[in-house]
C-alpha cells in the first residue's frame, strides 16, 4: 500500500512538472548531442507554429534555417564538454529564433527579442548528453530600452538629432571624407529675428516655429543627411556625398521654402526667414571643429549682409 502511495505521489509530481513545463511563459527546448529535439514546450509551439510531434527527433538546424548555426553550435559544444551554463542577451544577438513579435507597434521590430540560457543536463551517472535551451521573450524591455536610447539622441521639440548625436555624426563624416576624399558639406542655419517671434507672439509660438522648421528640413533632406537642432534657433545639416554646387542649390531651396512658410500659432500667424552658411569639406581643414567654424563664420557673414541669404565659406 505504501509503495502504491509513493508511486501515485511520483505520478502527481510528474503531472505537475509537465504542466509547469508546458504552461510557463518561456521557451523550453531539450537537445541531444546531435542537436535533435527531445522536448518542445507550448511556448515554442505557439510562437514557431510547429507542434512538438512535428519537431521531435529532428535536428534543430534543419527545422530553422535562420538559426546562427556556427555560433550556436559553439555554445552548445561548450555546454556539453565543460558542463557550463551559458547566457546571451538580445543586445548581443537580438533574436535566436525569428519568432514574430506578438504585439507589434509602429516603428518596432517585427521579431521577438530574446534572451537565451543554455543549461547542461546531466543523467544519473553525471554524463551530459542533453542541453536545455531556455528562451525568454524580452521584447517589451528591449523596445523600452531602445525608445529611451532614441530619446537621448533626439531633440524632442523638432524631432531632429540633438547636438550630442549630431557631434558623433560630424566626427564620423569628417574622418570618412578625410580618408576617402568623398565630397561632403556642412551647413548651419539660423532663424532670422527669432527673438521677435518670441517677444510678439510668445514662446509657445516660437516652439511651433522651431517644430515647423524641423519638420520641413526632414522633408527636404535625404535619408543619408543628418539634420540637428544645434541650440536655440540654430540648426546644423551634415550632407554626405554633396558637392559645393549641390549644396548651393539645396541651401537656396531651403532658404526659399522657409521664407514662404507660414506657421499657425495660438497667437496668430508666424512668418520668418533663415540665414545659411555652408562649408564643403576640403583637405585644409585640420579637424571637425575647424569645419564647423568655417560654416558658422559663413552664417555670421550671411547675417551681416542683411540675413535671408546663403553664404559659401571661404576656403582657408
Q: Helix share of residues?
A: 40-55%
CATH topology of the largest domain: Alpha-Beta Plaits
Gyration radius, to the nearest Å?
Answer: 30 Å
Largest sheet: 5 strands, antiparallel
Number of strands: 12
Q: What is the ordering of alpha helices and beta strands?
A: HEEHHHHEEEHHEHHEEHEEEHE
CATH class of the largest domain: Alpha Beta
Name the CATH superfamily classification of the largest domain.
Reverse transcriptase/Diguanylate cyclase domain
How many domains is the backbone divided into?
A: 2
N- and C-termini, Cα separation: 100 Å
Which segments are poorly predicted (pLDDT under 50) over 5 or more consecutive residues? none
Looking at the overall shape, the CATH architecture of the largest domain is 2-Layer Sandwich
Total DSSP helices:
11
> What percent of residues are in strands?
15-25%
Q: What's the quaternary structure here?
A: single chain
Shape: elongated
Protein structure class: alpha+beta
Mean pLDDT level: 86
Strand order, main sheet: write it out: 2-1-5-4-3
Domain GGDEF: 182-315
GO molecular function, one term: diguanylate cyclase activity
Enzyme class: transferase
Cofactor: Mg(2+)
Amino acid at each position: 500500500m505504501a509503495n502504491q502511495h509513493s508511486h501515485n505521489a511520483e505520478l502527481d509530481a510528474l503531472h505537475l512538472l509537465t504542466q509547469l513545463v508546458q504552461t510557463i511563459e518561456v521557451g523550453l527546448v531539450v537537445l541531444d548531442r546531435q542537436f535533435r529535439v527531445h522536448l518542445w514546450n507550448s511556448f515554442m509551439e505557439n510562437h514557431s507554429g510547429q507542434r512538438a510531434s512535428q519537431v521531435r527527433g529532428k535536428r534543430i538546424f534543419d527545422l530553422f534555417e535562420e538559426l546562427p548555426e556556427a555560433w550556436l553550435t559553439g555554445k552548445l559544444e561548450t555546454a556539453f564538454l565543460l558542463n557550463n551554463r551559458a547566457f546571451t542577451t538580445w543586445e548581443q544577438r537580438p533574436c535566436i529564433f525569428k519568432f514574430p513579435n506578438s504585439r507589434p507597434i509602429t516603428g518596432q521590430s517585427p521579431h521577438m527579442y530574446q534572451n537565451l540560457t543554455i543549461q547542461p543536463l546531466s543523467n544519473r551517472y553525471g554524463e551530459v548528453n542533453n542541453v536545455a535551451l531556455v528562451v525568454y521573450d524580452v521584447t517589451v524591455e528591449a523596445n523600452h530600452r531602445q525608445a529611451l536610447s532614441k530619446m537621448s539622441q533626439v531633440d524632442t521639440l523638432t524631432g531632429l538629432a540633438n547636438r550630442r548625436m549630431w557631434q558623433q555624426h560630424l566626427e564620423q563624416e569628417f574622418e570618412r571624407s578625410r580618408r576617402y576624399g568623398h565630397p561632403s558639406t556642412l551647413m548651419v542655419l539660423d532663424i532670422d529675428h527669432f527673438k521677435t517671434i518670441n517677444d510678439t507672439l510668445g514662446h509657445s509660438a516660437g516652439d511651433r516655429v522651431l517644430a515647423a522648421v524641423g519638420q520641413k528640413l526632414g522633408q527636404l533632406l535625404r535619408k543619408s543627411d543628418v539634420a540637428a537642432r544645434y541650440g536655440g534657433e540654430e540648426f546644423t545639416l551634415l550632407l554626405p556625398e554633396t558637392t559645393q554646387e549641390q549644396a548651393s542649390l539645396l541651401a537656396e531651396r531651403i532658404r526659399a521654402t522657409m521664407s514662404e512658410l507660414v506657421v499657425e500659432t495660438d497667437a496668430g500667424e508666424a512668418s520668418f526667414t533663415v540665414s545659411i552658411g555652408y562649408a564643403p569639406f576640403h583637405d585644409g581643414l585640420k579637424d571637425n571643429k575647424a569645419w564647423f567654424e568655417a560654416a558658422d563664420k559663413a552664417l555670421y557673414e550671411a547675417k551681416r549682409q542683411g540675413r535671408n541669404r546663403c553664404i559659401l565659406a571661404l576656403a582657408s
